[in-house]
Amino acid sequence: MVNLTTESPLFDDLRSALQEVLPAEWRWRLRVQDRPIEADAVLDLTDPRDDITRVLVELKSRLSPSEIVRQLRWYEERGPWLLAAPLVGPRTRQILTDEGISWIDLATQECLLSFGTLRIERLPARRGSVRVTGGGAVNVAGDATDASRRSVADLFSGKALRIVRWLLIDPERQWTLDEMVTAASASPGFVSRTFATLERDAYMERERGASRLRDAEGLLTAWAAAPPPSDLIMSRVSLRPTPQAILNAVRQLPNAPRYALTAEAAAEQIAPYARFSRVELYVDEAGAWDRFLDLTPVPRGGNVDLILPTDPAVFAGSVKSGDLSLVSRPQLYVDLKRRAGPASEAADFLRERGALWRH
Questions:
Q1: From CA 103, how far away is CA 81, in angstroms rounded?
Q2: Predicted model pTM
Q3: I need a labelling partner for 94 at 20 to 30 A (CA). Which of 81, 242, 322, 357 fits?
């Protein structure tokens, strides 16, 4: 809550945003009560049939995902709510939307409002919806430089992704700082900042001196939606007649170099879903595989893809399926989901079958 008056800049920003987004046929009044109430303000909405909905309003200079999660029960017991701030980040938007809590970003006037028969979505243009700007920039309290020292900018690249991957490989585990330092080959300071970022975004929670995931599904979804790494994908042709024949040749290699099967060929080993025409392998180097499998390099359209990862941590959590080595289940889901068509559907199939969290 904030110490709010009708002259408060936040109050004025919210009033301007509501004037912009609410339909003309709806009447509304935004008020601050003199006596203490459980919200910063109250929004009275009157629909075209003169039915009134009373909405509790909370105005904040910042909306932290972890704070929102801690207060979900409180919001649920008192709603409906409208939460507003100069910046409503993607993770906060996701949590509020999933919980049916309306929100509005005062800087962009992007919002999701749902009260009775009224539903308004104004989302960024990159998501295929209308983006509305205006009213000037809104400064957010706090020092960005200080904040950057306590968090990481991108959870889904570099060593931060190593940490995310390990958390998803074993989502029930309680991780100490030292254990993750060893697993991710990262410094204690970097692991601490990554943990703090995950806690801030309500993906992780601290328990008895250790940390564990609280939202594995949400973290996995966010990883799959993040930009992919710049892995080197080398297309090859094998003269073996079928993908299964190629996989049989891999199985029979007596001393195969390190590899991890991914995409549809790997999903087939866990939960068969659809036919596939290409075998994709993460490998340390291509030359040995060209020799072992008699592969011919081609510009595109081969039936084997050798993938040189930007970070060898992609092999973390690899599992055996018979005589084949597969990437970890979370990595497999992400690799499938980032492809269109049947591969993405296979990812959904694995998730629906509950096959992602088994070893």
A1: 8
A2: 0.71
A3: 357
Domains of the chain: 9-127 (3.40.1350), 144-225 (1.10.10.10), 232-352 (3.30.460)
**pLDDT the model gives residue 249:** 95
Dump pLDDT digits (tens) for 126-173: 433 433 332 333 333 333 334 445 778 899 999 999 999 999 999 999
* Distance (Å, whole) CA 35 – CA 31: 12
CA dist 293 → 113, 125, 249 (Å): 57, 47, 7
Q: Name the residue among 327, 224, 187, 200 with its Cα closest to residue 269.
A: 327
- The band of 116, judged by pLDDT with boundaries at 50, 70 and 90, is confident
Write out the two tokens for 30: 């935004």
Distance CA 356, CA 351 (A): 6
Joined tokens for residue 328? 């970890």
